[in-house]
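This entry is listed below:
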Amino acid sequence: MNPTFSGEVMLAGWSETHNGGAKVTFWLSDPEELAAFKRMTVAKGKTAGQRLACVLVEIGEDELPKQPEPAKAEKLKGGPLAKLAGMWCQSKDFMEWLGVSTPSEAKLFILEECGIDSRAELDHHQIAADIFHKNIREPYSKWLTAIGKAPCTT
């Protein structure tokens, strides 16, 4: 199969609007390369909308393919479990139960025990939430009951 277009392009810009969607615009290196796209619209009654599969590789100053930088992870928002864990980390009872003396140590314990980097992940990763419930929430609640204090369930 012959490609519809094969050549070098330069990113001209991108935009995203509520009525136009996401759009990327490229400059062609040679105006004659536009013929491939003109043929497509002429064949369809002078309208665009043809679907194309694209593979684009950024070219560095050395004219060689450039490895893309990894996308920055989206910051997760904490929900009820993250808030509960945060509240417990400030609690003297929770720190006593863990055998730690600072909120930072309590937080580190939760992160390490659940295999996460942020308490917010408790609300987004089921395995971490399950570990939190089984290894932290249930035993801590039992300990609170045993010492005559009501477990915090919120």
